[in-house]
């Protein structure tokens, strides 16, 4: 309190008794600065600046004297209290000396009394220390024993290459025995040195085993891929066999064979590559059924790296190595052609991803689904690129088909493991047109060779298997009854050869389109089949017809072949529908035009042309006809007898191989030609004039020809037989007009349309003018002078005049 009061007194600014004086003011300011512990530098600088340092010194001394007086007053005020305190302290010192003597005496008494107890206490402390040391020693020994047991177990597992359990023991040593818990410095130093060495050794060993596994797994992957694709191929083969049985059942049902027995064969085995996995003492072991691969080194390495805390690094290392392996698998062999190496190429990739799928599902997170999908996307991109490049170089359809089949099997195999293969199938679909163009080119060559090798003679079959192979297999038979052998077929070798080529084309086309991602591909197959028949086969037949020098028998055989091929075309479209999975009844309901119309018409035209040439040879005998005969011949002229003999011989031969409708068309064309030749002869320059007797003879000739046409009725229907007679209509109508009693009826439109609709005005005029005869019966203008004019002749003259005026 006194100190506080003194401080307060020190901070009091002196009174302003001399406020009017400048020196007093400076003194007050200086005093206030000193009391407030302010800096006196400004005062000193001011004093020296003004040249009055003495004044400043004077003020400082005055302030010091003031403070000394204050101190003196304070000391005087407290001096009495100090004297009293000193007296109290002297009395207290005396009491302390007494207390010291008492304490010394008490201490001596205590020491003399506690000496035995202290001796006992020392013995107790010594015994307790010995006991503690023994307990610590026993605990240390027990700890060392357990530590040595773990070390021994670790050494045992390490000697057995059981690395996972070795690391488990090392982890137990580190977690159960920290540095403070290991009593032996030697053991601690040994563990500090050996544990990292053991871990390093294990890491090197599993890394080496993993590296060896990476090398061996490539061969195992290829074998696994080949096995998986082989099983997919076997499954596809069984499906094809089942489809064949279904088609046979449908065909039998279509033919109404009710006594068929149907059976369903079920296969218990499944074509799945089972990869078993079971726990071993060191991790997981995986063996492919027939694949011959072992995942122990991989899973061991992964578990070891997990234990070492290097899981992420190992995952990355595994992914990068497998990615490099996949990239190397994409290298197409330059030693052999892609056709020879494509199975190995795709089998390697298939095995790779089957393996990755197994590792993804059983590897405990070694590789993620995203990583596998990234690898698959890279693989698909590369495979598409390789296929695009290789397909662009191939010029053989069979090579394209072989690779397409294997790629589709690859797609089927990997789709079962969850991989998307649409991009691969798109590449196959993209080259569909090129494949079919190459296939059409191959078929064009084969058909050309088959036609060139054919002699166009009827095919002789000596055995039943030949009949089955050449007739039944293409449904060319006209009866279900098997003929007697040897059997002479109504077609030549061209027909079964071309049928085999077309059937092979259909099967190859369906094979390319099948398993390509498109379910309904019949329209595509049908489009290319139409091209094969309408462009290739029809074009080849047209070429052989137009460029070859063929005889009548060969031309007849070609026409017969066309009729058989017309039946075969129905089989082709049914076969395409069956292979494409389309009900046959849908194809049968759809009536399609015959795709070989051009070659069929050309063949019939060629046959007709050759027959007409033959007939022309016989018709040349018409020049021997006596056009001014006195009497009409009774049995026809010589030329018509020769023609009829030729036609009868032709029919007897042709009906053995030509269908009735073809024979009818050919005969009708020939008879039409004969009719035209007869009329042409009457119209031509070679005949200047003729009489009614000659026309009557021609009438007999036409009747003989009509009789021949009527005699063919058993071969044709009534309508077809009547059409044969219609072929002679022009000659018949011309003869009827010339022999008519009222030829001017030709001018009547109704009668002309009914009876003379095939006659030409100019021909009627020209031929009518040539009819000259003095007989009354024959409309002659050469009657006797007094004779009555013949009305028939008059009618004919009127007809001629009217027709000339009309023209």
What does this entry look like structurally?
The protein is mainly α. Helices cover about 70% and strands about 0% of the residues. It has 27 helices and four strands. The strands form two sheets. Strands 1-2 form a two-stranded antiparallel ribbon. It has a two-stranded antiparallel sheet with strand order 3-4. α7 runs antiparallel to α8 and α22 runs antiparallel to α23. It is elongated, with a radius of gyration of 64 Å. The termini are far apart.
Global mean pLDDT: 79
Distance between the termini: 168 Å
Kindly name the structural category: mainly alpha
The major β-sheet equals: 2 strands, antiparallel
Number of helices: 27
What proportion of the residues is helical, as a percent range? over 70%
What share of residues are in beta strands?
Answer: under 5%
Secondary structure: number of strands? 4
Report the principal-axis shape: elongated
C-alpha Rg (nearest Å): 64 Å
**Major beta sheet, strand line-up:** 1-2
Topology:
Layout: H1 2-10, H2 22-35, H3 41-50, H4 53-159, H5 163-176, H6 185-254, E1 275-280, E2 283-288, H7 296-307, H8 311-329, H9 338-362, H10 369-393, H11 397-415, H12 422-430, H13 432-453, E3 460-461, H14 464-470, E4 487-488, H15 494-513, H16 522-547, H17 552-580, H18 584-589, H19 597-619, H20 638-654, H21 660-683, H22 692-711, H23 718-726, H24 729-739, H25 749-755, H26 761-770, H27 791-806
Antiparallel strand pairs: 1-2, 3-4
């Amino acid at each position: 309190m006194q100190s506080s009061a003194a401080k307060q007194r020190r901070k009091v600014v002196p009174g302003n008794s001399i406020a009017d004086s400048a020196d007093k003011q400076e003194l007050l300011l200086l005093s206030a600065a000193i009391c407030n512990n302010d800096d006196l530098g400004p005062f000193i600088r001011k004093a020296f600046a003004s040249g009055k340092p003495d004044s400043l010194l004077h003020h400082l001394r005055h302030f010091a004297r003031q403070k000394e007086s204050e101190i003196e007053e304070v000391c005087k005020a407290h001096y009495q209290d100090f004297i009293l305190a000193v007296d109290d302290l002297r009395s207290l010192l005396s009491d302390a000396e007494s207390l010291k003597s008492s304490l010394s005496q008490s201490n001596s008494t205590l020491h003399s009394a506690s000496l035995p107890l202290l001796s006992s206490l020392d013995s107790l402390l010594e015994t307790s220390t010995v006991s503690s040391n023994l307990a610590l020693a026993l605990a240390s020994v027990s700890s060392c024993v357990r530590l040595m047991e773990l070390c021994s177990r670790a050494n045992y597992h390490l000697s057995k290459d059981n690395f996972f359990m070795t690391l488990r023991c090392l982890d137990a040593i580190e977690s159960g025995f920290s540095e403070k818990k290991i009593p032996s410095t030697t053991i601690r130093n040994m563990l500090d040195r050996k544990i990292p060495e053991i871990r390093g050794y294990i890491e090197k060993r599993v890394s080496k085993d993993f590296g060896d596994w990476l090398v061996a797994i490539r061969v195992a992957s290829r074998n696994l891929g080949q096995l998986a694709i082989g099983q997919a191929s076997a499954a596809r083969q069984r499906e094809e066999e089942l489809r064949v049985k279904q088609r046979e059942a449908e065909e039998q049902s279509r033919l109404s064979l009710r006594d068929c027995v149907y059976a369903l064969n079920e296969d218990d085995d499944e074509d799945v590559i089972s990869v078993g996995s079971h726990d071993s003492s060191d991790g997981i072991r995986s063996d492919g059924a027939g694949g011959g691969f072992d995942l122990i080194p991989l899973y061991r390495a992964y578990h070891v790296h997990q234990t070492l805390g290097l899981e992420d690094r190992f995952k990355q290392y595994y992914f990068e190595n497998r990615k490099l392996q996949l990239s190397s698998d994409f290298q197409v062999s330059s030693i052999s052609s892609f056709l020879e190496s494509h199975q190995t190429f795709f089998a390697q990739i298939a095995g790779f991803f089957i393996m990755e799928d197994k590792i993804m599902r059983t590897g405990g997170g070694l590789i993620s689904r995203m990583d596998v999908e990234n690898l698959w996307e890279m693989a698909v991109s590369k495979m598409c690129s390789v296929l695009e490049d290789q397909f662009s170089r191939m010029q053989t359809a069979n090579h394209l088909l072989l690779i397409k089949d294997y790629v589709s099997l690859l797609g089927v195999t990997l789709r079962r493991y969850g991989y998307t293969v649409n991009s691969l199938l798109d590449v196959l679909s993209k080259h569909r047109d090129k494949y079919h163009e190459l296939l059409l080119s191959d078929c064009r060559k084969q058909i050309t060779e088959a036609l060139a090798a054919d002699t166009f003679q009827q095919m002789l079959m000596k055995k039943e298997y030949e009949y089955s192979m050449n007739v039944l297999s293409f449904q060319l038979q006209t009866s279900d009854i098997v003929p007697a052998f040897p059997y002479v077929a109504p077609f030549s070798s061209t027909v079964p050869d071309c049928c085999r080529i077309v059937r092979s084309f259909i099967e190859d086309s369906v094979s390319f389109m099948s398993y390509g991602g498109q379910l309904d591909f019949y329209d595509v197959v049908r489009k290319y089949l139409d091209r094969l028949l309408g462009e290739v086969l029809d074009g080849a037949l047209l070429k052989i017809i137009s460029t070859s020098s063929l005889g009548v028998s060969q031309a007849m055989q070609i026409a017969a072949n066309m009729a058989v091929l017309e039946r075969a075309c129905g089989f082709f479209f049914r076969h395409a529908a069956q292979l494409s999975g389309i009900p046959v009844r849908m194809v049968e309901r759809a009536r399609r035009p015959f795709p070989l119309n051009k070659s069929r018409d050309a063949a019939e035209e060629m046959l007709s042309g050759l027959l007409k040439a033959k007939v022309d040879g016989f018709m040349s005998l018409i020049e021997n006809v006596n056009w001014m005969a006195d009497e009409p011949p009774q049995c026809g002229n010589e030329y018509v007898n020769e023609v009829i003999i030729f036609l009868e011989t032709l029919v007897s031969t042709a009906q053995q191989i030509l269908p009735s409708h073809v024979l009818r068309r050919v005969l009708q064309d020939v008879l039409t030609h004969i009719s035209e030749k007869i009329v042409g002869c009457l119209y031509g320059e070679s005949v200047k004039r003729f009489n009614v007797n000659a026309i009557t003879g021609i009438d007999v000739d036409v009747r003989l020809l009509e009789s021949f046409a009527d005699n063919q009725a058993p071969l044709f229907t009534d309508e077809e037989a009547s059409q044969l007679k219609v072929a002679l209509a022009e000659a018949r109508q011309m003869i009827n007009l010339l022999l008519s009693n009222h030829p001017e009826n030709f001018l009547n439109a109704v009668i002309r349309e009914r009876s003379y609709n095939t006659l030409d005005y100019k021909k009627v005029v020209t031929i009518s003018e040539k009819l000259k005869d003095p007989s009354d019966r024959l409309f002659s203008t050469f009657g006797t002078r007094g004779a009555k004019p013949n009305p028939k002749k008059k009618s004919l003259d009127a007809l001629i005049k009217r027709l000339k005026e009309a023209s």
